[in-house]
Amino acid sequence: MTLVGFMQAGNVTVYSGSWRYPSAELSFLDLGYYTRIARTLERGKFDLVFFDDRLAMPGVYGGSVAEAVRYGARPIKLDLAAVLGGIIGATSRIGVGATYSTTYYDPFHVARTFATLDHLSGGRAAWNVVTSVNDSEAQNFGLETHLGHDERYDRAQEFLEAVVALWDSWDDDALVMNRDSGVFADPGKVREVNHEGKWFRVRGPLTVPRTPQGRPAILQAGSSGRGREFAAEWADLIFTADPGLAVAQQHYRDQKDRIAAAGRNPDDVKLLPMAYAVVGETQAIAEEKERLFLDSYVHPVASLTLLSEVLNYDFARHGLDDPVTEAMIDSSSGIRGLAEGVRRHLGRDELTVRDLAAHRATLLQGPRFVGTADRVADQMQEWFDGQACDGFVLAATHLPGAFEEFVRMVVPILQQRGVFRADYEGTTLRQHLGLSRPAARN
Q: NCBIfam families of this UniProt entry (predicted)?
């Protein structure tokens, strides 16, 4: 199975109460914090350490960032190029990935950043393609509101075409570096791309030669029909958020069919649900840890602050005990999907805003594997063997302990069962993933 360690370069994991956990390390402004975690994941032979990103503090709730700042609901996001650069210097095998937006960046900038990271890491870079979803980010880049769903994907499609053209603007053998003749590179093997489209004009060529992987690996997490089609065309890894096994199996079949329809080999694209592991020396210890995570450390307003950001809907207009009405649900497709999931989980139709906050706080967006190391491995293997996934994006309830426990306790069991590597066999991320190096499109 493929294993990805999910990180954020800030004060919390996806779990907004993680900073309050008693053993959590709070040195998130120190590069050593990230390099230590990356080395832990590399000891566990993870394919990739991946950093999510947002380009704004959560500011939809109440039209202000105050509650995000007050409760530590993801107010800190460091620049990821610097963080990944530090990790590259501290590791030798594990892949390094980061989120960069196609809505607020330009193709040349993104192409150069990830080509540079791929060279400096010896072929370990990955780019998570996102279209960005909320008004807070738009307002940090001179816009009032974000682009509509289809417009974002239209722009992303052209963005990828331009980036790939830039990555392929040097032939693999363009560098000559002949000191005697004085020829540095063959100009016949370095091309302008001259991309002209609706959204971008890019002359090229890129100022970075073709990389060790040919192209950095592409990650994507679109869940809508348009998002799944986009992922089928471009992604090497697809992140999913299916809470149950049956739903994940259906998603897996649908996405693999879309990949085949796009003319690609479905086995070359890995589907990875976001998952959480709470590991204990006994089942009772693991369940008590889980209870602490769920009941003790997340303020409901912190959860609503993040929900408001994700759904672009201001929950500050409601009290915690207000009912979730049809008018509220109709205002956002995201709220409808969330409400349907919470109803299924709770087994009742009547919901309050507090129920939505608790759902966000308790990490129910994906599978949560709780128990002894053997039990956690059993649950993971059930998904993997049941064709619900090709591995997992493992998120941490707290750092660095959650990853340390998983690597020390669960990874050896997965290795003994033959469902996870005993060691790295290659040096590049594509080799870890069993993917061939792509030929240039030019």
A: FMN_nitrolo
- Alpha helices (H) in 312-393, listed in sequence order: 326-330, 333-346, 353-361, 373-385
Crossing angle between the packed helical segments 245-261 and 225-234, to the nearest 10 degrees:
60
Q: Examine residue 243 and say whether the peptide bond preceding it is cis (omega within 30 degrees of 0).
A: no
Neighbours of 115 (CB within 10 A): 26
| pLDDT tens, residue by residue, 347-404 | 888 999 998 888 766 665 678 999 999 999 999 999 999 999 999 999 999 999 999 9
pLDDT class for 337, splitting at 50, 70, 90? confident
CB atoms within 10 A of CB 72: 20
233 Cβ partners below 8 Å, 6+ apart?
262, 264
Q: Coil, strand, or helix at residue 9?
A: coil
- Considering the segment(s) 2-282+364-432 as one domain, its CATH architecture is Alpha-Beta Barrel (3.20)
The helix (run of H) or strand (run of E) holding residue 305 is helix 300-311
Report whether 76 contacts 68 (CB < 8 A): no
Token duo for residue 271: 């589907």
Q: What is the mean pLDDT of the chain?
A: 92
Rounded Cα–Cα distance for residues 147 and 141 (Å): 12
- Residue 430, amino acid: R
Domain extent listing, the chain: 2-282+364-432, 299-361
Does pLDDT of 243 surpass 70? yes
Q: How many CB atoms lie within 10 A of CB 382?
A: 13
